[in-house]
Amino acid sequence: MNHKKLWIALLLVVGISFAVLLFYGNQIYQKAPPVPEQVVDESGNVLFTGSNIKDGQNVWQSMGGQEVGTVWGHGAYVAPDWTADYLHREAQYLLNKWAGGDFDSQSSEQKALLERRLQIFLRKNTYDKATKTLTLAAERIEAFEHNKAHYTSLFMNDPALDKLRSDYAIPKNAIKDESRMEKMAQFFFWASWACVTERPGESITYTHNWPNDAQIGNVPTGDLVIWTGFSIIMLLIGIGILVFVQARTQQEEVLKPVNDPLMNQVVTPSMRATKKYFWIVNILILAQVMLGILTAHYGVEGDALYGIDIASFLPYSITRTWHVQIAIFWIASAWLATGLYIAPSLSGRDPKFQKLGVNVLNWGW
What torsion, rounded to 10 degrees, do the Cα atoms 302, 308, 310, 313 define? Predict the structure, then answer.
């Protein structure tokens, strides 16, 4: 196969891939769950607004939210996914209320009837696109107040939830202000509403029936199963084609140097100056490892390290955030330092002002 055909194949793969990404990216944007301007009861009284929901998202982010559980599956799994947790608690509240207090004590037939009622109740889309208003039934408002009380106790400082808070690696008073806590609960409601509410004219939710919960009717669709299988098969076919072409294509002889250019290198002043970069890389790796150990231990002990109350001044959200971020810093530093070291080693000399540039870049970096 000549080089021209290889370039054509590469351009086709890149072009088709980006076309698919742009098409489905636009579809995702167009079909994203709406943020209502107002959430009202059946009498039209405003419960909270879209601004409150967005403010609640900011509150969740401000406490390192994606390191303390997840929303829509994005984050860390020491604490639960709050959308799945909210939906489960809402469902149990409604089922117990309709069952007269104890859903589990009902007969199989009665349970099936109540679960079907729950699915119809929760999955119905009561969002008015024209007025950008979401209307909630009285029972759903009761469920929201019930869940809000639970999350207020959890994220603030209710002693009754100390064990659960410890298991989730959530520090006491993670949210210190009740008004901020209320907005975060409103954000949790909206994120969960999108997971169970069917899109207009369709039988799937805004998140394509995620999270999986058969009790509320969130089950994998046929399309999801087919396209998941199709993507795996196409990946295997693509790998097979690459291996086949590589095996059948005659390889050109690779020219090798007589001597390894790095074995007899002259160490220049700028190459010596890169030493400080590698010290920084080693220190960053050590810091990342230590934070990783602490982060992993929080997953076992929750909020302590062998009984030592580390979380009070170095909580899980901080250790995990910096464990991830430091990896970016040391990898970038190592790549930069390697480039600065290798170039003079191959040429055998420093370009003009190379050592000065290495030092200036180090302090700027």
Answer: 130
| H helix intervals, 175-221 | 178-196
Taking a C-beta distance cutoff of 8 angstroms, is the pair 35, 53 a contact?
Answer: yes
**According to the model, what pLDDT value does residue 252 have?**
65
**Contact between 87 and 188 (Cβ < 8 Å):** no
The CA distances from residue 208 to 6, 97, 220, 222, 319, in Å, are 38, 28, 8, 11, 33
Mean pLDDT of 113-126: 96
- Do the beta carbons of residue 220 and residue 212 sit within 8 Å? yes
Q: Give the residue from 226, 84, 73, 85 showing the smallest Cα distance to 164.
A: 85
Nearest to 129 by CA among 195, 199, 187: 199
User: What number of other Cβ atoms are within 10 A of residue 280's Cβ?
Assistant: 17
Total Cβ atoms within 10 A of residue 86: 27
Distance CA 229, CA 222 (A): 11
Q: What is the pLDDT of residues 316-337, one digit of tens each?
A: 888 888 998 999 999 999 999 9
pLDDT band at 215 (very low <50, low <70, confident <90, very high): very high
User: How many Cβ atoms are within 10 Å of 168's Cβ, its own excluded?
Assistant: 20
Phi, psi (rounded to 5 degrees) for 344: -65, -30
Q: How far apart are CA 77 and CA 242, in angstroms?
A: 37
In terms of Cα–Cα distance, which of 196, 185, 42, 188 is closest to 118? 196
Count CA within 13 A, CB hemisphere, residue 42.
5
Phi, psi of 36 (to 5 degrees): -65, 145
Distance CA 332, CA 129 (A): 47
Q: What is the mean pLDDT of the chain?
A: 89
Integer Cα distance of 173 and 161 in angstroms:
12
In the predicted structure, residue 364 carries a pLDDT above the cut 90: no
Q: Which residue has the higher pLDDT, 2 or 350?
A: 350
Pairwise CA distance, residues 79 & 164, whole Å: 9
Q: What is the pLDDT of residues 283-319, one digit of tens each?
A: 999 999 999 988 888 877 777 777 777 777 788 888 8
